[in-house]
């Protein structure tokens, strides 16, 4: 089955970000703004095995804050993406992601380098993603504070019409500071 592991930052003053996400990311029909720790991967691991990995990886962490600031564009073969950059000064998200990929082994492989971000725009058209960048850059604040307190593992499933949906599998709450 296909799964994804991510956090949903609780963003202060998130109205503009949510509006951009809703209008420019087609995935907004089934997911909120999020930061992937492990990108979608195929795995036959049992839920209890994943829960054990979560407990091992996340038991040493407490809830924490990051900053969201600046935009990046990624042009790829199938889609182009607009990212809201996550500024993780203590590299906690990177550590979490690295630990998860290590623990998942052959079940999940990271292609390239992990850079935490929220995908706020997605389009097959480079011109459209560039327009979204311009619109977004002029309407976003310089920086947003965001709390990270819960890690999710969800299953990606397709309904009978071929639409992607997420099904809850694991919700791990980090203790508060």
Provide structural commentary.
The protein is α+β, with helices and mostly antiparallel strands and 177 residues long. Helix content is 28%, strand content 38%. It has four helices and nine strands, in the order ββαβαββαβαβββ. The strands form two sheets. It has a five-stranded antiparallel beta sheet with strand order 2-7-4-5-6. Strands 3-1-8-9 form a four-stranded antiparallel beta sheet. A hairpin with a 5-residue loop joins β8 and β9 (164-173). The model has no long low-confidence stretch (mean pLDDT 95).
Q: Which key features would you list for this structure?
A:
single chain, alpha+beta, globular, 177 residues
Shape: globular
**Could you tell me the radius of gyration in angstroms?**
16 Å
Helix content: 25-40%
Extended strand count: 9
Structural class: alpha+beta
What's the story with the biggest beta sheet?
5 strands, antiparallel
Distance between the termini: 35 Å
Number of helices: 4
Instruction: Give the overall average pLDDT.
Output: 95
Strand order, sheet with most strands? 2-7-4-5-6
Uncertain segments are none
| Helix-strand pattern | EEHEHEEHEHEEE
Percentage of β-strand residues: 35-45%
